[in-house]
């Protein structure tokens, strides 16, 4: 429970103005720093997005919505928005599904449960660049990778993952890193489930599926919404996995919004265009955040 | 709960171990590759049994390269965590013990700064850093990581401070304890585990952060994330070497994560899941 009840909210008043003034003073550095962090770069990004500004040809000037028009007319922006949505959506579905299943499994009285738990959550702590390179070179490589060897054993042609299904390949890597997060959170939530209730349901003849459907899933609704919120924040900005595997290609098949802006700014030196892309990313993230923050706030108040 | 039969328990365990082995396999395979020779590493028949060599790990540790990047990772993670705690502890204290009608909105606003995609502000941050000479410096990275982690740090600390009974601090105030005494002798000891797990989460997030490290550093201040990314270039395709560097890059954080997993759940969910 993150937010206080009404009684506690009134607490500050009782202790008098002195403490409250001190509290404001203690709060201000963080608020000021975050305000600056939020406003200054964002205003600058907005400003640059209306400029013709290329680092190689600095002379520019105000161009109105040209940068936006150029982006919106082009094919790259729409494709990268679509790629972003596919990646976030696909990974969310995979992590919630597999995370729930493995949490339910790990919640059973298993042999070596402590060690199992460590195995299941390990990928979450692996640096994104490490995870991506290991998958790319040691596992998915079409010639020397382990998957190719399996394919040879089964006498089928190995898949060239990053050429044929590049977005899926990146999705697999990202899901591998985030399923453990869902597992960890959902497992902890399951452990606080009232065992008497499960027992009673069992006595009343509810089978495992009914118990899962009517007792476990409702209990998991809140932790699942938290997993969705936190993962969305991080998945909207997946970057390292793309940079070290496909660099956004082939073509723009794996270019998501962060990668599009990165390419425009630091490879093509087009500050104006990159800024416009950045603002579009911010707008999209805010649309998502609006719903997420609201649902989390209500779910935390309970 | 009723114990399942022995056979059910054994078959469930077997299933769980098979899945666990699959999930952990990439990490295991990387560790195994790090103790192979380059020729063994790219062998088209995967080798499970071979005479291990620790030459790759040793040469990584001996080369100035790895140590330089590891030092950057350590300094930047610890530095940004310290800064976030120094800023965050008073702020969380103020909101937990002197809440007003605005506190909840303030917390949500802080969290919403985390929703702003880094990519939206990459361009100005890059240009500002370039103009004031912060590009490729540890100070620059510390500043960015501090700002990126601050909202989460404040939220976590807030949820831990809320669990400290108000009455204790109030009683000490009655007895004439100054504000500083309350902080040092009561609040910090009472919430030490919470502060520790907040710090650990911040270290883990900073250690693994990649977007800013790649875009704002080149060689001087580059941490391990950027160092590993440099292996994606064609000349970096020595897989045993890559694996050795990777093992050394993830080992400390993996250990830290394993040791603190229970506290992390609380932190990552802002105390909403216990």
UniProtKB/TrEMBL annotation, chain B:
Question: CDD domains under this entry?
Answer: TM_PBP2
Its domain of life reads: Bacteria
Q: Which Pfam families match?
A: BPD_transp_1
Q: Which SUPFAM superfamilies match?
A: MetI-like
Which PROSITE patterns does the record match to this protein?
ABC_TM1
Q: Which Gene3D superfamilies match?
A: MetI-like (1.10.3720.10)
Q: What is its main location?
A: membrane
- InterPro entries on file: BP-dep_ABC_trans_perm (IPR050901), MetI-like (IPR000515), MetI-like_sf (IPR035906)
Query: How does the UniProt record describe the way this protein sits in the membrane?
Result: Multi-pass membrane protein
Biological-process GO terms, alphabetical? transmembrane transport
GO cellular component terms listed in the entry, alphabetical order: plasma membrane
Keywords recorded for this protein, A-Z: Cell membrane, Membrane, Transmembrane, Transmembrane helix, Transport
Q: Where in the cell is it found?
A: Cell membrane
In this protein, which residues make up the domain named ABC transmembrane type-1?
A: 70-260
Q: Where are the transmembrane segments?
A: 12-32, 69-94, 106-129, 141-161, 182-207, 238-258
Write out the similarity annotation. Belongs to the binding-protein-dependent transport system permease family.
In Swiss-Prot or TrEMBL terms, this protein is called Carbohydrate ABC transporter permease
């Amino acid at each position: 429970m993150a937010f206080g009840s009404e009684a506690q909210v009134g607490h500050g008043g009782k202790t008098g103005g002195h403490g409250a003034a001190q509290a404001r003073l203690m709060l201000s550095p963080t608020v000021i720093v975050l305000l600056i962090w939020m406003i200054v770069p964002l205003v600058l990004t907005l400003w640059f997005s209306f400029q013709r500004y290329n680092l190689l040809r600095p002379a520019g000037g105000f161009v109105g919505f040209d940068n936006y028009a150029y982006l919106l007319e082009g094919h790259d922006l729409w494709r990268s928005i679509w790629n972003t949505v596919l990646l976030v959506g696909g990974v969310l579905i995979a992590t919630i599904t597999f995370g729930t299943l493995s949490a339910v499994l790990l919640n059973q009285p298993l042999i070596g449960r402590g060690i199992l738990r460590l195995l299941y959550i390990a990928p979450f702590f692996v640096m994104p660049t490490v995870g991506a390179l290991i998958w790319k070179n040691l596992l998915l490589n079409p010639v020397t990778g382990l998957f190719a060897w399996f394919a040879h054993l089964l006498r089928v042609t190995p898949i060239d993952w990053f050429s044929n299904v590049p977005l899926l390949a990146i999705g697999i890597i990202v899901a591998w890193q985030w399923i453990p997060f869902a597992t960890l959170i959902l497992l902890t939530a399951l452990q606080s489930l009232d065992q008497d209730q499960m027992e009673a349901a069992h006595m009343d003849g509810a089978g495992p599926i009914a118990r899962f459907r009517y007792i476990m899933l409702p209990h998991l609704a809140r932790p699942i919404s938290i997993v969705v919120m936190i993962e969305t924040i991080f998945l909207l900005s997946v970057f390292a996995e793309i940079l070290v595997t496909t660099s956004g290609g082939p073509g723009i098949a794996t270019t998501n919004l962060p990668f599009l802006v990165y390419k425009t700014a630091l490879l093509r030196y087009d500050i104006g265009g990159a800024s416009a892309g950045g603002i579009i990313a911010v707008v999209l993230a805010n649309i998502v955040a609006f719903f997420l923050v609201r649902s989390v706030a209500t779910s935390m108040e309970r | 709960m009723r114990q399942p039969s022995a056979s059910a328990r054994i078959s469930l365990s077997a299933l769980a171990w098979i899945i666990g082995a699959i999930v952990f396999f990439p990490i295991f395979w990387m560790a195994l590759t790090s103790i192979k020779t380059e020729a063994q590493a790219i062998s088209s028949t995967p080798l499970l049994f071979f005479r291990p060599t620790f030459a790759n790990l040793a040469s990584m540790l001996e080369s100035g390269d790895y140590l330089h990047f590891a030092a950057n990772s350590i300094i930047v993670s610890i530095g940004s965590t310290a800064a976030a705690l120094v800023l965050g502890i008073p702020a969380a204290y103020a909101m937990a013990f002197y809440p007003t009608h605005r506190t909840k909105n303030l917390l949500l606003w802080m969290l919403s700064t985390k929703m702003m995609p880094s990519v939206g502000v990459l361009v100005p941050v890059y240009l500002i850093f370039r103009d004031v000479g912060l590009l490729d410096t540890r100070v620059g990275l510390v500043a960015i990581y501090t700002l990126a982690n601050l909202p989460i740090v404040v939220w976590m600390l807030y949820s831990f401070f809320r669990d400290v009974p108000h009455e204790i601090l109030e009683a000490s105030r009655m007895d004439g304890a100054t504000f500083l005494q309350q902080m040092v002798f009561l609040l910090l000891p009472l919430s030490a585990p919470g502060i520790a797990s907040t710090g650990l989460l911040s270290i883990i997030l900073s250690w693994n952060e990649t977007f800013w490290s790649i875009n704002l550093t080149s060689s001087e201040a580059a941490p391990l994330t950027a160092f590993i990314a440099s292996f994606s270039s064609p000349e970096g395709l020595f897989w045993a070497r890559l694996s050795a560097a990777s093992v050394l890059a993830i080992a400390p954080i993996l250990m830290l994560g394993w040791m603190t997993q229970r506290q992390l759940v609380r932190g990552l969910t802002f105390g909403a899941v216990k």
